[in-house]
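TODO from last week: model Signal peptidase I.
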Amino acid sequence: MAEELALESDEARAGAAIEESAAARGARRRAEWWAEIKGIFWLILAVLAFHSFVAKPFYIPSESMLPDLLVGDRLVVSKYPYGYSFVSPTFHLMPFVKGRLFGSLPERGDIVIVTPPGTRTDYIKRVIGLPGDRLEVRGGQVILNGVPVKRGPLHYVDLKIDDNSVCDPNEYPGARRTLPDGRLVCRLPIITETLPGGRSYDTIDLEAGYSPGDNYGPITVPADDVFLMGDNRDRSADSRFPLSELGLGGPVPWEYIGGRAEFITFSLDGSATWNPLTWFGAFRGGRSGTSLHPHEAGR
């Protein structure tokens, strides 16, 4: 009888140990899963914080900043040069908040990311006018504080045609050319502008004096606002156009500036498919590392 009781006691202890072991394993698995979830959460939070307050990647979806920026370019936008505002977070979910933390104004010629008022979409444009500037456009000529912005002689640049840069004949009539070596290019008219202070950059002027944005103002840029334009002057919805036409609705309060474009990381010509063998051939050569700061006289 004593032996039977001892056997039952051993079996009970063994069963309890098995149950305890199973419970411990379950608890350990739950702890491991929770640790994984927490790790992923903190990683996502760190990435979002970096993108919101330090730098983030940006993709060029349109031709409004030709010739410097092509459709398919990927670039780095730094978030801290002008301080932080309600559009600084990666996702534009905050309501408008006036002012900037550690704020400073952009310089004329900077390429900036801007969120048009009332939207959650990012545009990329160039700063032309600063607070207090008297600005107008006449026949495609920008006039700042009564002085026409210096323009260099008309010249042409050939941009390679590819799946991302198709040189649509409706947008660029007569620009498609075939070079002697058989390459297709888009030949575009270039005018180099030099702003007060000596910063210069190239613009495209397709229809000087004839496109809707070639005559604007005069206006005085309000305090803490900036006036923005695309370099592809006849194919850019910017401060010259109302919000109803997908423009920026005039000078933009500095709170809507999200950061400064720094350099191109890489560029894709649009030929890649799901086949990994096509990926390497889709890279455009010679664009990685290209600075997006305007040329400065004497440098």
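Done. The two ends are 102 Å apart (CA to CA).
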